[in-house]
Amino acid sequence: MISSGENLKFIQQQMGHASITTTMGRCGHLLPEVSSGAVERFDRAVFGEGVTPISEARHPVSRG
Hints:
By secondary structure, the chain is mainly α. Helices cover 48% and strands 0% of the residues. It starts with 7 loop residues before the first helix and ends in a 6-residue tail after the last helix. It folds into 2 domains: 30 residues, no CATH class; 29 residues, no CATH class. Helix 1 packs across helix 2. The chain contains 4 helices and no strands.
C-alpha cells in the first residue's frame, strides 16, 4: 500500500497500529524505492521545474 501511494494514516489504521511510528518502523524499510528521486521532487517543489538536480550538477552528463 505504501508503494502505491496510499495514505500512511489509512495504512496505520488497517494494520491496527497505535502509532504511525510503528507502521513505518515495521513496513517502511521494505520499500527503499519510495525514496528514489526524493531530492529531485523536493527541488522541483521548492524551486520549480527549471532547477538542475544536485545529482546532475555534481556529475554532469556529457551531451556531445
